[in-house]
Amino acid sequence: xxxxxxxxxxxxxxxxxxxxxxxxxxxxxxxxxxxxxxxxxxxxxxxxxxxxxxxxxxxxxxxxxxxxxxxxxxxxxxxxxxxxxxxxxxxxxxxxxxxxx
Length: 101
Hints:
Layout: H1 2-22, H2 25-63, H3 73-99
Helix pairs in contact: 2-3
């Protein structure tokens, strides 16, 4: 009698676990897929913005005779990256210090 009761409880626990793990996977899977698609769109937009910023920096550096000598692809990439990320990090640091008081 005790053995049968234990087996029944174990079976019921496995059924509950099965329901919670495998029946909710499509919902979890769709959310993960949605997040991946969202981050892919964000990455594509950031890449497009970065290329536009590189083109603008190169154009402006070539207009200046002193900066024209520095207008190589590596420097332009670094400068565009810095111009895109430093304001974000600055805002992050400011907000972190503001809300940590």
